[in-house]
């Protein structure tokens, strides 16, 4: 039901379902709108009247491209299908043509659902990479996707129970959304880097991310982007410089995460994390598990962070940290556990688990914990 509701809302935001039909949804929603059940039902009925369903058996010679050209926008595929899927809005009238004149018909909203068990239906490399662009929407369900896909220009991609793994020689392993676009990933496995940038957003739940050791990061948000992670498993993240990177005025909320790797929050960005465990004792990084720098903010609650031989948490250059029931430690038994520098600050609340804090460059540390008080370096004491 959630998948249907997501499509109805996407339908309301974009106003049309199929590129060759100019009828608009009866109710168009904007961010923050209050949506009534009657409005939702109207859009649901409109959606049902617009959906054109076709079964495509690619092993028998049928193709996704042919089904789209025939006017279908909900495809149930089986076998191994060619990729190069283009989902986009296009009006040919300024060029003196109609939709019927085009050899490959544009589709702005498309659902592809695998019909084979265990994500056995596959989409592989086509003549070009797949794209979702120009205020369009693509939903992939119950399948394996081995092509490379880009999402941009106010578009949306949703993956439900999908195995995404680019199997194209010489092509970087990436899934990217940019320029006011949205990416939803649920109950899926992703191989490679996930990148969200330029005012885009990410909703990532109950899934796994297998990092590409040839990339600098595994997950990145940049340029005013935002994201939410809930119950994500990372693999091979300890081999990267920064497993998660949040930069350039972006924000990320994380809940229920175990990470063997590192997190960096930088350039006016923010991280709000609850119930996470970070272990970077086997990481390649020499800078600890988490570093927050250049006017950035960290809120860390009910979490554990353990490094090998350097401060587990570093807050630098006019940045701030708020720790609530956080256990920050080092496996070598040395201190400090938290290091502040460049006019930065940290406030420690709740159970502080004897966190040792050192301060440099007029930085501030405040201990308001109610048990196991932290051990502030003398350089921090006069700031309390």
Q: Whole-Å distance between the termini?
A: 53 Å
Tally of DSSP helical segments: 4
What share of the residues does DSSP label as strand, in percent?
Answer: over 45%
| Average of the residue pLDDT scores | 86
Measured as a percent range, the helix fraction is under 10%
Largest sheet: 17 strands, parallel
- Using only C-alpha atoms, the radius of gyration works out to 24 Å
The residue ranges in which pLDDT falls below 50 over 5 or more consecutive positions are 1-24
Computed structural class = mainly beta
Record field, number of beta strands? 30
Shape: elongated
Please provide a written account of the structure.
This protein is mostly beta strands. Helices cover 10% and strands 46% of the residues. It has 4 helices and 30 strands. It has helices at residues 2-14, 37-50, 64-69, 378-381, and strands at 53-57, 74-78, 80-82, 86-88, 109-114, 122-124, 130-133, 137-145, 149-151, 156-165, 174-178, 182-186, 189-191, 193-197, 201-210, 217-222, 226-235, 242-246, 251-259, 263-266, 270-279, 290-293, 297-307, 313-316, 320-330, 338-341, 345-351, 356-359, 364-371, 375-376. The strands form 2 sheets. It has a 17-stranded parallel beta sheet that branches. Strands 4-7-9-11-14-16-18-20-22-24-26-28-30 form a 13-stranded parallel beta sheet. Helix 1 packs across helix 2. 43% of the residues are buried.
């Amino acid at each position: 039901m959630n998948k249907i509701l997501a499509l109805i809302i996407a339908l309301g935001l974009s106003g049309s379902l199929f590129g060759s039909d100019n009828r608009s949804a009866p109710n168009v929603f904007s961010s923050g709108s209050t949506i009534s059940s009657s409005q939702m039902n109207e859009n649901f009925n409109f959606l049902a009247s617009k959906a054109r369903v076709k079964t495509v058996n690619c092993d028998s010679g049928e193709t996704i491209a042919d089904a789209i050209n025939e006017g279908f926008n909900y495809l149930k595929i089986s076998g191994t299908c060619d990729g190069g899927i283009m989902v986009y809005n296009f009006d040919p009238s300024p060029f003196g043509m109609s939709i019927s004149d085009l050899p490959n018909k544009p589709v702005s909203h498309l659902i592809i659902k695998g019909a084979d068990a265990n994500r056995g239906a596959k989409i592989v490399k086509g003549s070009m990479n797949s794209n979702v662009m120009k205020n369009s929407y693509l939903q992939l369900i119950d399948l394996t996707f081995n092509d490379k896909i880009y999402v941009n220009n106010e578009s949306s991609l949703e993956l439900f129970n999908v195995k995404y793994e680019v199997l194209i020689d010489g092509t970087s392993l990436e899934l990217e959304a940019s320029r006011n676009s949205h990416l939803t990933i649920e109950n899926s496995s992703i191989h490679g880097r996930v990148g969200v940038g330029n005012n885009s957003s990410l909703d990532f739940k109950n899934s796994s991310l297998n990092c590409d050791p040839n990339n600098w990061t595994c997950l990145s948000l940049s340029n005013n982007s935002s994201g939410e992670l809930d119950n994500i498993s990372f693999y091979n993240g300890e081999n990267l410089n920064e497993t998660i990177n949040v930069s350039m005025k972006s924000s990320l909320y994380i809940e229920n995460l175990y990470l063997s790797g590192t997190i960096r929050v930088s350039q006016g960005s923010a991280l709000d994390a609850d119930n996470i465990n970070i272990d970077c004792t086997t990481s390649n990084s020499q800078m600890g598990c988490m570093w927050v720098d250049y006017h950035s903010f960290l809120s860390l609650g009910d979490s554990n962070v353990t490094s090998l031989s350097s401060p587990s948490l570093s807050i630098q250059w006019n940045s701030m940290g708020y720790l609530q029931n956080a256990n920050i430690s080092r496996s070598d038994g040395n201190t400090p556990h938290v290091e502040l520098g460049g006019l930065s600050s940290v406030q420690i609340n709740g159970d502080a688990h004897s966190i040792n804090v050192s301060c440099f460059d007029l930085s501030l540390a405040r201990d308001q914990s109610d048990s196991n008080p932290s051990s502030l370096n003398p350089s921090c004491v006069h700031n309390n």
